[in-house]
Amino acid sequence: MKTMNLTTLTDKIQSIFAPKTLFSIARSVKLVERSRQFNPYYLLLAVIDTLGCQSKANLADIHRKYQTISGMPIRYKPFHNQLKKEQCRDFMQQCFEMVMQHWALHTLKLTSLSTGYAFPFSQVKLHDGCSFQLHDGLQTEYPGRFKNRYPAAVELHVTMDLLSSSVDYLALGADTEPERPHAPKAQTLNDTLLLTDAGYFDRDKIAEIDKNGGYTITQALCSINPVIKSAYDYQGNAIKKAKGKKLKTLQLKDKNTIIDLTAQWDKNPFEYRVIAFWYKKKKRVGYLVTNLSRETIPASDVVELYRLRWQIELLFKELKSYCNLKKFSTQKEPIVCALIYASFITVLLKRMMAFATEALKSLWISTQKVARSAPIWLSLLVNKLSQHHAVAIAVEECVELISKLCPRAHPKRDLKDGLYQFGVTSLVENNGID
Fold first, then answer.
1. Which of 120, 301, 344, 422 is 20 to 30 Å from the Cα of 215, by its Cα?
2. 3-state DSSP: the chain helix, strand, coil percent, rounded to 5?
3. Mean pLDDT, the chain, whole residue set
4. What's the sign of the alpha-carbon dihedral 135, 141, 143, 148?
5. CA 413, CA 31: separation in Å to the nearest integer?
6. Where are the bilayer-spanning segments (predicted)?
């Protein structure tokens, strides 16, 4: 990967927002044939600016922004007619895929576990789903699980690369569709740790990941009840009386206890490592199932590593809070899909600028602050791009704004309490910490 500098960042922005490239994509999906009143370049800019900078944005806001930055007095109805085309959805999907091609930013690195052990893997993947309500008129295309309250709902299936903060996989489906088929395949996880929640717990999948040289930590359902083959306390001492008993017979002595188990299900020769811990959020015993070796990764570190999964929840929160990923007031399925892809383009653009600024300015930057301050710097960038000003100058101005407005407030505290306590740290060495 190239060293990040202003030229590299400018090249990435120019590649994403190249008018000829966007027009070529629009033509290839048959969204437009000639650039007259409806210009795909201005459409992408208008959508990103509206979703990324405005609270509770709607289609009329996008229409107004499009007219403002393009100077094209197109009426709302013909504008809406373009948005509701399936080709508009295809255009936004290809734009999202293009953004991912130009991402190529490694922002974090693995150091070592809190106990000093080295990581046996070099990549960390997080997978989860995110659902939200749609207009009731879309219940045929996207039936919701809770029919009485939310007749229509969409489920987004996302795989996130922790070290680059990028999205490897995005799929849209009905809220009623099964989740497991969308998780990364075992064959793709060599030298990789996959973190998933209880919705993806699959004993056969764990064994297959292990066979393919990968690793996983997944939360298990509270109803699991395998036979205990061996058990150890947090100091590594064997708990002999637990051997041969069912998991449900095990009791934690107190809420700070962690018990490290080897367990086996009937008719399954694979032996699973199960960590029993106190699940504070649900006030009950929780279980993590992993194939990480007990000899190299202590149970306490397994629990800490699993907390890295929270980063994908923060991505979803950023999408919903600052990129308008929410219920859209439209019954047109292509518009919904187009806006979902546009929301992801927006969040990835914000994060690209955050991490690039971090590297360029040797500062630890808060992605949340970057997202919140988008009305200042993102609107500036869109305005400059729409007027075809020098991209390098616009990008440099945005970097300067982000560096002044968005540094992490407590970098010393973050080393103890933030993401970095889990053996993951920024690639930026000179981070301004005294």
1. 344
2. 45, 20, 35
3. 91
4. positive
5. 50
6. none
Residue 329 DSSP SS3: coil
Q: What is the DSSP letter of 173?
A: E
| 363-387 exposure pattern, b = at least 16 Cβ within 10 A, e = fewer | bbbbbbbbbbbbeebbeebbebbbe
How many CB atoms are closer than 10 A to CB 314?
14
pTM of model > 0.90: yes
Q: Which tokens hold the place of 151?
A: 């007749």
What tokens does 155 get?
A: 């489920």
Q: Which residues in 254-389 belong to E strands, given as ranges? A: 259-264, 272-279, 284-290
- The tens digit of pLDDT for each residue in 101-143 reads 888 778 888 988 777 778 999 999 999 999 999 999 999 999 9
Task: Give me the amino acid identity at 329.
Answer: S
How are strands ordered across the β-sheet holding 192-196? 166-174, 153-161, 123-133, 192-196, 215-219, 284-290, 272-279, 259-264, 227-232
Phi (first) and psi of residue 404, to 5 degrees? -85, -35
Q: Helix axis angle, 310-322 relative to 333-361, nearest 10°?
A: 110
Under a CB-based contact definition with an 8 Å cutoff, are residues 127 and 200 in contact?
yes
Which tokens is 171 given?
A: 């799929």
Nearest to 48 by CA among 344, 401, 398: 344
